[in-house]
Amino acid sequence: MDGLKILPPEEQALTEDTTTADGIFIKRVVVPKRDSFVPQHAHVWDHTTLLTNGAMFVWKAGVLDKCYTAPAAIYIAKGVKHLFRTVEDNTTFYCIHNLKGAQAVEIMAEHSLLDVEV
Fold this sequence. Notes:
By secondary structure, the chain is mainly beta. The chain has a domain at 28-71. Helices cover 0% and strands 54% of the residues. The chain has strands at residues 14-19, 24-31, 37-43, 47-53, 55-60, 63-69, 72-76, 82-86, 91-98, 107-111. A five-stranded antiparallel beta sheet has the order 1-2-9-4-7, with no helix packed on it. A five-stranded antiparallel beta sheet has the order 6-5-8-3-10, with no helix packed on it. The chain is globular.
């Protein structure tokens, strides 16, 4: 992938968070530009990422899982660091968590891409 330009954060993901009354947390992420990265992170619970528009590569535990194309439901196990790279403009996905009584989604670790060769 020679010539891949990593976009600055301000040109990457736009998000909107929603918590419903029944304890289901839904985080919508809209990524306007292709070849944007969603920083690697991990959660304390299993969750599903529902890809509704576009396509993206998904890494789990540092290993490329595959390229998903909408519509797709992507299972992410608790404690597994995961990273996304969009393949199309306006890729949209929803991270869906059952909070099990918590008030927010707890993130175990998050890592930013500072300098990457692809």
